[in-house]
Each structure stands twice: as C-alpha cells, then as structure tokens.
Amino acid sequence: MLQMRPGCECCDKDLPADAGGAWICSFECTFCGDCVETRLAWRCPNCGGAFSARPMRVGGALERNPAQLERVFKPGGCAPN
Hints:
Pfam families: DUF1272. By secondary structure, the protein is mostly loops.
C-alpha cells in the first residue's frame, strides 16, 4: 500500500492524499509537479528513477488507510542525478 507522504521532498509543499499534483518514483519518493518539472527534469534525485502521477486516496479508503503523517524534506539533496 502506498505511504501517501504528505509533502514535497524539495519544497515541502503540502500534497494531500485526496488531491492530485503529487508525483512518485518506484520507491515512493514524493514531489510536487513544479519541482518535478523545473528542478528535477523528471528524474528522482534519490534513485534516478522516472516519476508517475501518484493516485489519490479518497473517502472511506482514506479513512480506513490514512496518509502518512511524517514529512520527508531534503532541500539540500533536491537536484537531479
């Protein structure tokens, strides 16, 4: 099950689980669309992998399986591989 991390690792922008705009790599590193496009050139700075749009989790699914609360914020490591 996806962790649904709550924010962008680069800029710390909120990325709610029930809203679009989040991008993840295969390791679930999570970034906002602005950082993916303008700062990362569509490559994860942690693993070098490509991004996919993170699906939304809404309604009862979100209530039964809440998003992760712990934020991952690594502004110093936010550069393309």
